[in-house]
Amino acid sequence: MIKCILIKLLYLLFIFFLLAFKLKAQKIHIVTEEFAPYNYIKNNQLTGIHTKFIKRILAKTQIEAEFHIYPWARAYNMALQQKNTLIYSISRSKNREKLFQWVGPITPVTTCLFALKSRKDINFDDLETAKRYITVTQLEGRTAHVLIRKGFVKRKNLMDATSLASAFKVLLNARSDLIGYPELPIYHLIKQQGMKPNDIIKKTHCFTDVELYMAFSLNTPVETVEIFQQALDELKSSGEYKKIFIEYQNSAH
Fold this sequence. Notes:
By secondary structure, the protein is an alpha/beta fold. The protein has 2 domains: 22-109 and 211-251, Periplasmic binding protein-like II (D-Maltodextrin-Binding Protein, domain 2, 3-Layer(aba) Sandwich); 111-208, 3-Layer(aba) Sandwich (D-Maltodextrin-Binding Protein, domain 2). The chain has 10 helices and 12 strands. The protein has helices at 2-25, 49-61, 72-81, 127-130, 142-149, 164-172, 183-192, 197-200, 222-237, 240-251; strands at residues 28-32, 40-42, 45-47, 65-69, 85-91, 101-109, 111-116, 135-138, 158-161, 178-182, 201-206, 210-216. It has a 5-stranded mixed β-sheet, sandwiched between helices. A 5-stranded mixed β-sheet has the order 9-8-10-7-11, sandwiched between helices. Strand 2 (40-42) and strand 3 (45-47) form a beta hairpin. Helix 2 (49-61) packs across helix 9 (222-237) and helix 2 packs antiparallel against helix 10. The radius of gyration is 21 Å and the shape is globular.
């Protein structure tokens, strides 16, 4: 009886170490965009709330990975097509559900339409009125998808930008009337440029809060996905998650 139990334990240990070796041998390609304070370059290093979460997970699991930062559309397409690829700070939707293997949620975000505070003629809180104006937002981002579903039309009342920085320039240069983006990143960007958000922009309409996730390409081993989810859950339960989030959230205001 004891001999049988020992054999089973040895077999399970063998499987565990075999799986660990397999995962370590398969380096993960991690892609994202410049999206402060969640992921961004500072002093030539990729940092941010979500970046720090992922680096802690990699340290805990001893899985090898390399990070790359690209425009969102490029990062998104890489995660759709390439093996062992993780994209992060991505919202989960019905359209995307079957395109990825999901890990999360990481954090909730509030997305709004903003106008320059100097635009006294812009004052509303509904999307139907917003259609009268030109809105710039992220290429292939969730906000663009939501607005298109609500009846906005590209090159008519909806413009694409490859990044928040470029979208904000479009707004400042009066090439658009509104900018559609998550609240915390746009506040962070304005403050980094030496301005006070409340002096520059005003909210006109906000969407229902959504949560951001990590998402693995479909041809990534399911074991990798499960290990990441377990490590994220442990990060949350340990209190380390809350500590990291508060630290970066405070630095952005």
